[in-house]
Each structure stands twice: as structure tokens, then as C-alpha cells.
Design a protein that fits this description.
InterPro entries: ComplexI_NDUFA12 (IPR052618), NDUFA12 (IPR007763). One of its GO terms (cellular component) is respiratory chain complex I. Belongs to the complex I NDUFA12 subunit family. The protein is an alpha+beta fold. Among the domains are: about 60 residues, no CATH class; about 40 residues. About 25% of the residues lie in helices and about 10% in strands. Strand 1 and strand 2 form a beta hairpin. The chain starts with 6 loop residues before the first strand and ends in a 51-residue tail after the last helix. The relative contact order is 0.08.
Amino acid sequence: MFGLVKHHVGTDQFGNKYYYVPEQRSWTGQTIRSKRMIEAVNPKEIEYEVGNIPSEWEAWIRGRRVDPPTIEEILHNEEYRKMIKINADEVQQKEEIRREKEYEEGLVARPIRTQTKGHASATYYGKDDLSSEPSSTANTFQPGGWLPPENSNKKK
């Protein structure tokens, strides 16, 4: 035998083909263990994205399920996922409406958004402009806390 015997098990909606290779002996007498493999429609590794392989087929490839999935099972699970997303969006919208109503009625305070410039331990914390006067010593030096004066000696 000069090649692996692989059995086509199925094809997904994206066109990926799935194969089962039973345990075999090579021409040198070595035992090759059984494995499951995919022949991707787009074999370029860099173009692979999550979702290119249905989760049911991935579970079969990884050995988490014995039987390969059927098209009916995959379509049923896709519809189920769509319904979950729709229900989650509805719950999110209801929650936003409830939260806004609580804010309007004064039951809950609105979150305060603060804007912080710099770090509180920096000597220039809260200052809009940096000074040309040194504001720290070597022990408390803060990078970017001092700018050289404008009229410094520049080589012309």
C-alpha cells in the first residue's frame, strides 16, 4: 500500500471535506493510527478564521463525538444560535429601558464619568501645560515632567 486510505465522511456548508483514516500498516510495516482530518476549501493557514469550521465538525475532528454531524443537526443548531442572539438582544434592550427609567425616577444615580490627565503620583498631575521649571529632584524624577526652556543654546 503506497498511500493512506481515507474515507470521505461528509462535507459542511462551507465546502470543507472531512475524512476518516482508519488504522493502517504502511509499506514499511509501521502501524499508522486512525485519525480524522479536514480538507479545507481555503487551505491557506493565514486566511483561517474562527467560524470557518462548524463547531459540530470541530467536535468530531477532535474526537469529542463519535458520529459525524448531519446537515440537519448543523442547521438546527444554527437556528438555535440565532434565536439565542435575538433573545439576548431583547433582554439587553429591556435592561437598558429599565435602567433609564430608574435613572429618571431617581432610584439609581447615574454613573459619573471622570477624566483623569496623567497619574496622581506625577508632579504635573492635573496641569494642562508642562513647565520649563524643574519640578522634581533626582529622587522624585518623573519622565516628561520638565521641558527645556525655549531659549536654550541651539547649534545653528
